[in-house]
Recover the amino acids of this structure.
């Protein structure tokens, strides 16, 4: 009985200590006079039972804003998190006071998963060095070099699509568009003709999908590694990508580089530029410097990042654009009319110059990215104590900042009738009248999306090629609402996107 009593008292003492720890921890924002969302032991403001996409987790916090403070306090487990709700404060975090928030705090494990240490996840001097090395690969001049390659893939995509149609047919566009962007990125990043339209189960398509939609860890474990990276690395050896996914891309990069160097192959693509940097050369660009060689692992990591970011985001953007255009036939016809008028001035050819003239198509893409931002949440890490402007509040070094681009894009105080699809929101007049960080589809500031030029170019070419040749309408299978893949930080829907497609 004495032994049982001792154990019972130890358990009670242990549970009391845990309860006391969380109560004290959850007073963090209250003690600082910051408005916060009430947490629940032990998950904080994270959901306990149901699987939820990260956009919904942060969005639910953002929706509780009162306008009194520039941000709301929240908790991931026992860790304080800042959720900004004021655009001026967001501008401070992303641009004005970037030196205090230059980290992303994204989990990576260079020891067990070398490819996870890429430009997206690295912080500090390593990120700075990689960004300086790779930024020149995405200049407008280099986009011009890659433009014919993307058009060639688009032409092949259209030819394959024509084979599927006899006048009209219901097609699942999510998979078809992912095959198109897989072929584009496979060609530009690796110099490999994937031809996913003919071979939908190609290795690139399969491993690319698995990397994002089938990670090695659950959403909860991902958030755990995000909050406690040292524990995740040291004790659990948590990976970002499954081993077979990393091995496939590592081997592909090794083989591609070995073949090109042995046969002196030059293609003016992304891999060419990475090989130059691997061999210690600098890219001949006005902003370029010689900053040391890239290792083979760094080359593979950046190639994988480019592949994943490029094929998923652009295919999703085009898919949502076609969905909205099918629901808004007047906007679709206006876009098609612009395409016809511009191409008639350029001998019917899609060229770098003709695409730049299609301003309404660009508005359609921007409005699509507003309603469906591919990266709905932007994370930053406070790298030094920061005094919030016009207050006594200090955001301590190491605090996470979670900016909900999705919530900002759907905030009726920022965009009137946000659920209405209206490309004219991106007319020069309306853009000028909005806050400079009201549109965050590519982030902003020094850590914005380095590949935004390529992403826009790829989406423009794909959309122009499709609207030039086909008309899109909703059908019985067209979804009216969406469920998102919880484990994927990008905005990836679970169901297919069926549309009725007719030849123009």
């Amino acid at each position: 009985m004495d032994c049982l009593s001792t154990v019972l008292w130890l358990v009670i003492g242990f549970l009391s200590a845990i309860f006391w720890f969380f109560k004290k921890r959850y007073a963090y924002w209250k003690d600082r006079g910051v408005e916060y969302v009430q947490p629940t032991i032990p998950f904080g403001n994270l959901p306990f039972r149901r699987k939820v996409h990260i956009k919904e987790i942060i969005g639910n916090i953002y929706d509780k804003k009162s306008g009194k403070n520039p941000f709301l306090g929240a908790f991931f487990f026992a860790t304080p998190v800042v959720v900004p709700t004021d655009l001026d404060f967001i501008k401070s975090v992303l641009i004005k006071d970037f030196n205090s928030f230059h980290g992303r705090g994204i989990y990576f494990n260079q020891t067990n998963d070398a490819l996870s240490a890429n430009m997206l996840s690295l912080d500090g001097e390593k990120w700075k060095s990689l960004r300086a090395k790779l930024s020149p690969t995405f200049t407008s001049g280099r986009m011009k070099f890659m433009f014919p390659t993307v058009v060639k893939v688009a032409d092949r995509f259209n030819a394959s699509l024509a084979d599927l149609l006899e006048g009209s047919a219901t097609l699942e566009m999510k998979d078809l568009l992912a095959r198109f962007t897989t072929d584009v990125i496979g060609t530009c990043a690796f110099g490999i003709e994937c031809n996913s339209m003919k071979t939908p189960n190609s290795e690139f398509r399969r491993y690319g999908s698995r990397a994002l939609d089938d990670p090695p860890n659950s959403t909860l474990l991902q958030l755990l590694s995000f909050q406690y990276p040292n524990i995740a690395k040291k004790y659990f050896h948590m990976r970002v990508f499954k081993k077979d996914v990393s091995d496939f891309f590592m081997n592909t990069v090794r083989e591609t580089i070995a073949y090109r160097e042995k046969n002196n192959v030059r293609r003016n693509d992304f891999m060419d530029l990475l090989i130059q940097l691997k061999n210690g050369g600098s890219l001949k660009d006005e902003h370029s410097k010689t900053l040391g060689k890239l290792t083979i692992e760094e080359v593979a990591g950046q190639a994988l990042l480019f592949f994943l970011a490029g094929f998923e985001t652009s295919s999703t953007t085009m898919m949502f654009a076609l969905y909205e255009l099918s629901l808004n036939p007047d906007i679709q016809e206006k876009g098609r009319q612009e395409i016809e008028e511009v191409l008639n001035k350029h001998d019917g050819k899609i060229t770098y110059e003709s695409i730049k003239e299609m301003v309404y198509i660009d508005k359609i893409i921007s409005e699509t990215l507003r309603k469906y931002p591919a990266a709905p949440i932007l994370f930053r890490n406070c790298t030094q104590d920061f005094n919030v402007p016009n207050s006594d509040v200090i955001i301590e070094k190491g605090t996470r900042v979670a900016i909900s681009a999705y919530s900002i894009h759907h905030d009726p105080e920022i965009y009137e009738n946000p659920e209405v699809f209206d490309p004219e929101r991106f007319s020069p007049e309306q853009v000028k009248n909005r806050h400079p960080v009201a549109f965050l589809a590519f982030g902003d500031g020094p850590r914005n999306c380095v590949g935004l030029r390529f992403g826009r170019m790829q989406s423009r070419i794909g959309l122009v090629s499709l609207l030039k040749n086909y008309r899109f309408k909703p059908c019985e299978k067209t979804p009216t609402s969406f469920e998102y893949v919880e484990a994927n930080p990008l905005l990836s829907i679970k169901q297919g996107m069926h549309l009725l497609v007719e030849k123009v």
